[in-house]
């Protein structure tokens, strides 16, 4: 926290009268606004939308303090304070450096290509009983993430752990000035993120700039590249590795199937640590964390106790459908105040209209003041307008309960001593229409609660990676001119991925429009609290009521339909109702014929019932090089029709024709808006697909394993014949789930432990058998990937002569959708 005056001073701004206000939050993303009274917004330039564009919206939400680089007409914002700087990002960084300089504490700066976040989290797990630690949230390690992390240092902290990542030369110096690490840690240098650099040496040199003023650098002495470069630093070095002369000598690493034993020698103290991790990357990260802890004078005895307790770092926030229209967010990341704030933001983003409930366990005590910690937790819950709190644990029942009472909060609260206590009382809670965050330390085993509240379904799930969807959305946006709008087609439950969840995410990312096929789909989305405009491609007359009631915008494609809808509007007493006009240019599906455009223009001219929002057409073959001339012909027809309409009806409207493949292949066809569909899920032509992330994974599990002899047969009509002694796995998915029967008899395959297992015999209604003879260590209950990473849905589609669209939208509603986000 700093006063606004101090902040202005730190940015070298003086002269302007500034009120005495305390600023707690630096805001760089307008969507994350929680407490406007004490937030300062930095109008950062974005790749597409400049931060200055969000000032009116933030002002309306009550925010008054802004750091800007453009001229703002202060008259439009009474009471607003605008700190004007040359470069908003530099100002943010300068402020963070100023904040950092107020603290004389140990600061660990971590850089490297891989393992930064894991080493940071493991150090946190190892040291949190001894220190009051502040650390970067998630993987905040960028030019923006680092200043936001450093701003979190509070007077009670006695150790800070921050990550620094760079993507191009010249960036590390900025980060060094902000972090000012006293201890430098370099993790694995792989080939990741090397685009901006000539080679690995250049990249490493840049990274090591972070440590210029550090007291010590901790590094892997066995990596020749690291050793060569680190040896040249003026800073003292703490090496770990196999060499006897290193500060921490790794004597041996013994791997067994159950775990790994690492024998270490720290200045003559020989000891061994035990971990259940066996992969090389985890071992390297563990030894790195040990080296840092030893340097910080943590006893080897304590490390021997704590290393086996290290938990995998999982920053996934999973969200699932619960019973009674609830959504559940299950966060097993960790229990500390920073991760609570991240989870509450995610809850806010997903909850939409639903009321918010939090089920929370005692927090891991980080050595600080207990009273203060629980008061902070309560304040966070209040800020995020949590309606109901269920606290579980001794501290919840005593300290938290006392705060809730003392502060006279309106939060409906219930406290239980243990998870089983709460479960015994579960029947007295009726969870309904709620967004529920379940966040508990591992010892509390909150997964029991999650599974009781979860909608029951069989073990075949479609996983939807919301980060990938957001990434793909932004990737397509960046192919467009900044002014071009985006309509996202979320018809057929957003191509099978679940309409309302994806629509919610798109609203959050400020999509301009949504498109659905039928009115019902639009109604569902509206009921989930989504307010952005929605176009309905195929509005049926019996759905006109639903359309106007939920402010959906119909696509009008014939005179009959136009007449009927106009009549409906007149009878409802509405005026200037937004509609879209579809022109037939060659798809021969829906649309007014080109020859009818003049007559149509006359019908729409001076029409007080209907307001044309957009005029559009649909391409028949935008992905097909052979048909490119036809594609351009369609575009030209639409252009001409739109001009004719505009001239006659006398006002402006949007025009659009491009679907996903046209966005990628024909930037010239983007017009005023594009209609993005399948690309959102990571599916596109080769060139663009490389930049996208696959968003959907269809997963199932093995119900039974069977050993069969050569000559035995599998499934109906005995079509699958074992050509040798074989192991057959029965998987819990069939054609009723959308796994096509055409994939029978070796046409399709699935992935088990990352290896291909072909379908043997005919696909049944609810099950299918696969051959896992050649795959070692397969057990009943193991996961099976039906499609996803490593087995693209395109490949499955190709095998049976169809397109990904059909497979995705054919996944039945019996398959549970699980959403996750990092
Ligand atoms: C489905 C649809 C789209 C999106 O097409 P993609 O190929 O999935 O990008 C665009 N416009 C209309 C009219 C559609 O029906």
Account of the protein in words:
- Residues 695-820 form the Alanine racemase C-terminal domain.
- With 822 residues, the chain is of the alpha/beta class.
- The protein folds into five domains: 2-88, Udp-n-acetylmuramoylalanyl-d-glutamate--2,6- Diaminopimelate Ligase, Chain: A, domain 1, CATH 3.40.1390.10; 103-309, UDP-N-acetylmuramoyl-L-alanine:D-glutamate ligase (3-Layer(aba) Sandwich); 317-456, Alpha-Beta Complex (Protein-Tyrosine Phosphatase, Chain A); 463-689, Alanine racemase (TIM Barrel, Alpha-Beta Barrel); 696-821, Lyase, Ornithine Decarboxylase, Chain A, domain 1.
- 31% of the residues lie in helices and 23% in strands.
- It has 27 helices and 39 strands.
- Helix 4 crosses helix 9 (280-295), helix 11 runs parallel beside helix 12 and helix 22 packs parallel to helix 23 (628-649).
- The radius of gyration is 30 Å and the shape is globular.
